[in-house]
Amino acid sequence: MSTIIKFYTAPNDDVAEQGPGRDAVDFGDFDVFASLEEWESLLLDRPLDDVDGPEQVNDEESPLILALLPALTRALARADIDALARSWVAVRSAEGEKIDPAVARRILTGLAGLARSRRPVFCSVS
After folding, report:
1. Pairing, β 4-9 against β 121-125
2. For the whole model, what pTM was predicted?
């Protein structure tokens, strides 16, 4: 089964629940839940066991709407994307998930672009 992952910005949770707008970047078929926690760990220098992870902002199961932590959003906005992509690919590989380095850079570049908007970033998973 394919998973569709859309990252987008919205001014608040209520607007985010309406779904992605024009700024959405779409990806698929990677473990977004583990990845959000790994990015938080890598960028905020926290042990993986101590990360907060995203917050679900809706009551639905599909699509599931997650809010990225503000600290993670700020860190993504100023991240060295190549270094983060290399680290993330290594972590995912250790967990048994192969992600092409070019795909990792494309995902993180799109996400960092949203983060630089200074608006809250959300993720829709369906």
Report:
1. antiparallel
2. 0.93
Residue type at position 53:
G
Kindly report the number of other CB atoms within 10 A of residue 96's CB atom.
Answer: 7
Query: In angstroms, what is the C-alpha Rg of the chain?
Result: 13
Per-residue pLDDT of the chain (126 residues; tens, 9 = 90+): 468 999 999 999 999 999 998 999 999 888 899 999 999 999 999 999 999 999 999 988 789 999 999 999 999 999 999 999 999 999 999 989 899 999 999 999 999 999 999 999 999 999
Alpha carbon 94 to its chain centroid, in Å, reads 19
Distance separating alpha carbons of residues 24 and 6, to the nearest angstrom: 6
Q: Determine the Cα–Cα distance for residues 8 and 80; give it in Å rounded to an integer.
A: 20
Q: Which residue is listed with tokens 């700024």?
A: 23
| Token couple for 120 | 């809250």
Where do the structural domains in the chain lie, given as residue ranges? Answer: 4-125
